[in-house]
Amino acid sequence: LEPGPGPPERAGGGGAARWVRLNVGGTYFVTTRQTLGREPKSFLCRLCCQEDPELDSDKDETGAYLIDRDPTYFGPILNYLRHGKLIITKELAEEGVLEEAEFYNIASLVRLVKERIRDNENRTSQGPVKHVYRVLQCQEEELTQMVSTMSDGWKFEQLISIGSSYNYGNEDQAEFLCVVSRELNNSTNGIVIEPSEKAKILQERGSR
After folding, report:
1. Single pTM value for the model
2. Is position 108 within any domain?
3. φ and ψ at 181, to 5 degrees?
4. Same domain for 37 and 117?
5. Which of 24, 31, 34, 196 is packed most tightly, with the most Cβ within 10 A?
6. pLDDT at residue number 104
7. Are residues 44 and 100 in the same domain?
8. Quick one: 82 and 110 in the same domain?
9. What is the mean predicted confidence (pLDDT) over 161-186?
10. Residue 208 domain flag
11. What gap in Å lies between CA 199 and CA 150, rounded to an integer?
12. CA–CA separation, 19 and 11 (whole Å)
């Protein structure tokens, strides 16, 4: 008869003892003690990676550690311990991952998820950038002054020549349409702020 298998090797020495089986809410996950030990203060490290574990847990008939948590959000937790990156699919709520990260006491992951949530909230509150456009009519000699006095967030967009409409003395004065734009402040809820004195001057010139 062939000799039976020897005792399993201890953690860090290779073999079966390196691997850990987790039963999270009825779903099995298999990983290594090295992965779970990436965060020494975490619930998972204290449960599975210490010779004298600080935490006690029942095991099921397969020897898997029983953890009464939602398995749906455990995937991002385990993957973060594996490669240090936060990956959340569209089907998962970031708040759910945050809840699990806090339960498993993975401080660095808690910070990452909170930053992600904060960035998403900022993008949502800002919404798409809207612009207000105005078309101002001016003569050639007024063009330089008009561009130089532009302020209050107005930006030059386009200059369109419309020929010579006015005649002063013996010289024709070239006429232009100057297109300018400004970002619409979202805090105004779509109401355009009353222009300042410089903006009013531009507006008056464009209304001639």
Report:
1. 0.53
2. yes
3. -140, 160
4. yes
5. 24
6. 95
7. yes
8. yes
9. 70
10. no
11. 7
12. 8
Range of the domain at 145: 128-164+173-186
* Shared domain check, 100 and 81: yes
Residues 6+ away with beta carbon under 8 Å from 37: 45, 49
| Average pLDDT for the chain | 77
Residue 163 dihedral angles phi and psi, to the nearest 5°: 85, -160
Residue 55: inside a domain: yes
Name residue 14's amino acid: G
Question: Whose structure tokens read 């001057």?
Answer: 201
Phi, psi of 115 (to 5 degrees): -65, -40
Task: Please tell me the total count of domains within the chain.
Answer: 2
Q: Give the confidence band of 98 by pLDDT, cuts at 50, 70, 90.
A: very high
**What pLDDT shows up at residue 68?**
94
Instruction: Tokens for 97, please give them.
Output: 């991952």
Same domain, 78 and 40: yes
